[in-house]
Amino acid sequence: MAPLNFLNLLAAATLAVIALSYSPAPVVALSPDSHGQIFARRGVHHGMRREPASNKKRSNSKRCKVRESSSLVSSSTVSSYTPASTSSTTPYVAPATSSSSSSYVASTTPASSSSSSGVWTGPKGGLAWPNGDTGKLSNWKTSHMTYLYTWGSDPLPAASNAGFHVLPQLWGDKDTATFAQNIGSYTTPTYVLAFNEPNESGQSNMTPDHAVQLWWQYIEPQKANGHKLVAPAVSSSPVGFTWTQEFFSKCVGCSIDAIATHYYDVSASDFIAYQNKFHDEFHLPILVTEYACQNFNNGPQCTPDQIWSFMTETTAWMDSTDWIISYMWFGAMLDMFNVNYECQLMGSDGLPNTLGEDAETFSLRGRRMVKLSPAIKHLLTLRNPNSLPSPTTARLRQILSSTYKDAQSRQAETGWLVLTTCTLLTLNRPPTLAHFYRFMTDTDEATGSRKSSVLEAVNKAALVRESALKSTIFVGVPRVILSLAALNEVIDDEVKAALRKDSRRISTPENIESTLVRGKALWDALYTPYADKLHDKLGGYHPDFISFIIQCYGAVLSPLPGGVKGYADSSSIHDPDQGNLSRTLGSVVGIACLRAEERVVPQLTSHVFGLLKARNAENQSKEDAWLSSDEGTEWVIRTVDTIVDGVKSDGQEFHEKVKL
């Protein structure tokens, strides 16, 4: 799912769509109670009864075909109302008469310049949050999410502590006392939101005259405290626009700095035209405090694909439009109050679901998301897209058992672990790595019950992970990702908890020099007496190529500083040397990968020499000394061949999928 390239068509689309018709879009039934929570206020709009709110998704089978939209402002309801040209310096001045034909002058402060008056500005994303003051708010704060409001005025310390800029609202008549009590706690200049859908009987439900009265009594005084004042947010039904026109014509001298809008319908282009209409009429920046891809007109609800497209198109447009201050998608809540549950941003755990995570970061990546065309999707199914089939479990256990017993007889179990990991990974059979771990830790295939101790299992898992990481140099990232994902699926939680979490390979100004020294030392150890000649030759292919190789050798292939681990060792989360492989075993990694890869004999030969030269390394273990002997090196190559032949000879497919 992805946004269309809308911005290139914006000018033409805006002119065309303004002339189009709109369907009446009912309000969302939200109202703050005395504790800042919200609850459903209505169930009927335009003669249509809505189903009770539920945490279940609606049945698509009960959705009706969409009907033709009606005009946003019908010819029978438009007042003879002509706004004057805008001024960028004067506050909003309403006409001296209440006649709808009078003009007005609005203050046009772009969203990007509102910081000049002290109101905090930043990325435009926001949350319409009906869930109270909860510590989970920190899970919703990203660099894109700036604003938050609750349909009320209660301060939310958790929101402020998480870094949100909270916007208080006077919802309507019933909240005036609470608003008067709370508004003084907002000492930092902010946007103060006026009444919620005053044109709707189930919402704040007031005439423009009464709204003007409340404005002067409760909203206008906040201007003296440095706040920006936001005009009421009407519903997106046609009467909402005319209500707003009348309110502006009667709010003579009101200091209106911005206007809030709500929008519920299924077309991104109509959404954009709707916002443009309000901006063209009132010449004020806009906060979109409720919107969703929702059909309130007896038509079919938006599918997830349509919601994604709607969200990404509208977000891209709002992010690029300087007079849009903020936007709040509906909704970050469990009860969607009769709005399409496919629009829900919150999972059952109170944290962002997939759509919620996308909404949090759209400003950073939404416009870069693309959608695969059917033709491209089809192409991706061709040319053997899946990993190769694995042998049956019985066959794989037979291969592992026979090679392990052979390694035991030679006291080369660590070498066996490393070469088996790298061989299976190179063969691109990810499930085999999961079975390999179960085999080593004596884990029951059916129940997952492990007989090995936690410390023993942690050590083996860490050695497999490290071997796989080093394989990246020889066979690339994709196969390593798939195999590590398969391994990660079968490691039980107790073992996972004891595996190292912090990277030891992050480059810093303090360690980069030692990493390069370590890489050059390994290079020399592997390729002497031809190290310098080969260095210059590879550098001649591309000036950055040899630098990249040396950095990889130092950061990944060479042992990390400290001690090294073996097959029979144990390890824990406190083990600083967890998973560290010796210089000898690094050469075993290279041989296993390149032998299983096939058709790269020059590189394989180089690393065979590298293993033989490891016999000169200091402080070799008994196992490493044997592995670097002629006999040991031959055994490594032959054992890789045995595993390759055994895995490839079994023709039965193993249909276990790997979750990344």
What does this structure look like?
This protein has three domains: 125-365, TIM Barrel (Alpha-Beta Barrel), CATH 3.20.20; 393-504 and 563-649, no CATH class; 507-559, no CATH class. The chain is built from 22 helices and twelve strands. It has helices spanning 10-18, 157-162, 176-182, 208-219, 238-250, 268-282, 304-320, 354-365, 374-380, 393-409, 413-426, 430-440, 454-475, 477-490, 493-498, 512-527, 531-541, 545-557, 583-597, 601-613, 622-627, 630-649, and strands spanning 31-32, 38-39, 44-45, 48-49, 125-128, 145-149, 165-166, 191-193, 228-234, 258-265, 286-293, 324-329. The longest helix has 22 residues, at 454-475.
Helix-and-strand structural type:
alpha/beta
User: Could you say how many structural domains there are in total?
Assistant: 3
| Proper CATH architecture of the largest domain | Alpha-Beta Barrel
Q: Note the total helix count.
A: 22
Counting DSSP E segments of at least 2 residues, the number of strands comes to 12
CATH top-level class of the largest domain:
Alpha Beta
Using the alpha-carbon principal axes, give the shape: elongated
Task: Write the CATH homologous superfamily of the largest domain.
Answer: Glycosidases
Strand order within the widest sheet?
7-6-5-12-11-10-9-8
**Cα-atom Rg, whole angstroms?**
33 Å
For the termini, the CA-CA separation is 19 Å
Strand content: 5-15%
Largest sheet: 8 strands, parallel
Task: Please state the average pLDDT score.
Answer: 83
CATH T-level fold name of the largest domain? TIM Barrel
Q: Estimate the helix proportion, in percent.
A: 40-55%
